Amino acid sequence: MYENDIYSNSENGSYSTFQTGSSAFNSDAGSSNGKKEEKKKKGALRRFMLSMGLGLAFGVFAGAGFYGVRWGAARLNLNGATGSVSGTSEDIQPASGAQMTNINQVTYVSDDISEVVEQVMPAMVSIVNNMTRTTSFWGYTYEETLPSAGSGIIVAENDSELLIVSNNHVVTDSDSLEVTFIDGSTAVANVKGLDSEMDLAVIAVPLESLSEETRNSITIATLGDSNNLKLGEPVIAIGNALGYGQSVTNGIVSALEREVTNEDGTTGTYIQTNAAINGGNSGGALLTITGEVIGINSGKIKGTGVEGMGYAIPISSASPIIAELMERQTRTDKVAEEEMGYLGISPQEVSTQMTQLYGMPQGVYVFSVTEGSGAEQAGMRKADIIVKLDGQKISSYASLKEALQYYRIGETISVTVMRMENGEYQSYDLEVTLGSRPEE
User: Fold this and answer.
1) How far is CA 421 from CA 104, 354, 375, 414, 425, in A?
2) Span 288-316, average pLDDT
3) DSSP for residue 308
4) How far apart are CA 225 and CA 229, in angstroms?
5) Which residue from 175, 174, 165 is spatially nearest to 201, judged by alpha carbons?
């Protein structure tokens, strides 16, 4: 091995020597080693500062990303109504980019509607219509009682009666009406007023027939404004579905001002909802999530493959008619045959077939008018077709006779007739004072 090695200092051209195995370095070697140590320290500091800078940048970007995710989620919740978002108009923008104003808090609609149901259920009733159907078979006539179920809403109370609104088709042609209240008690109701065109009815229960417990357990429903409804707004339907008792379903407003042709050929304008409405729900309430009645359940589209299409009469359209029906005289009992008023016509029934073939309104055709009768004095003519009596739809001679059983000799009632003029049927309301039936 070499005893002496030579190291060249390139900076000053001098040479330094060291002895093999010696631990002592000369002055030039010590200076060089100090500079190396200083460079190492500066390199370490740069690496430390670089690491700190990268960490800080990562933190800033991560924070910005987290804020962006929260902002995006807030927009989704706001537009989709799937949760609650707190904020102001300055930090929440709709998807369209339009500025939202006066927004302090947006909340979602709770699926729990139990409090609303508890509040409104005391105003709901179940109705059983006991009617008699007569059938003929091989020369024999049979009569059978056919009870049908429906619903009603307590809407008012006067000095002597509790007033309940329902559908005309729920209570018409009844021998008796039985109403069941929230406490399970029952009472007999009487027809106060009917409107077949709007399919509305008001029935009355005498207050004296109700116990104090029942009167304390029931409430009067709050009627809302169906004109302010919006598509997609949540609604609740309550009614006596299938006659099993009160049941609750919920859904949304599916359509507004929906024109639907009913089974009798008439056309009505309804609120459409996907809340389940089945047989027995008719006459019940369609409610907002605040418990206001905005519709009277009327029925549903029936057919294979049809789901979620129920209909309700808008309360804003029904309210004026309900108010008028509540002012009518309650018909409590049918009068004795010898006291029953006489209209003064020779009737002929307009069948469904005649309506389809000739376009005649369904009702009772006036074949002739008795001279000196109440009908003649009111201006009724031959070939008129009677379609209503005191607001109740008349579709057959049997329904006309049934309606007249509640009116005495000398009473004045409104009779609606359809009269052919200039090739078209025109409607006329006649005030007829009922007379005595002539002796045969």
Assistant:
1) 62, 19, 19, 21, 6
2) 82
3) S
4) 8
5) 165
Between residues 299 and 418, which one has the greater pLDDT?
418
Give the DSSP H/E element, type plus range, for residue 271: strand 267-273
Amino acid at 428: Y
Which DSSP string do the residues of 109-163 spell out, in sequence order? PPS--HHHHHHHGGGEEEEEEEEEEEEEETTEEEEEEEEEEEEEEEEEE-SSEEE
**CB-based contact 290:116 (threshold 8 Å):** yes
Say if residue 218's pLDDT is above 60. Answer: yes
Contact between residue 195 and residue 327 where contact means Cβ atoms under 8 Å apart: no
- How many CB atoms neighbour CB 288 within 10 A? 21
| Cβ 434 vs Cβ 374: under 8 Å | yes
User: Do 168 and 192 form a contact (C-beta atoms < 8 A)?
Assistant: no
Whether the Cβ atoms of residue 386 and residue 350 lie closer than 8 Å to each other: no
Which of the residues are catalytic?
169, 199, 282
In whole angstroms, what is the distance from residue 234 CA to residue 287 CA? 9
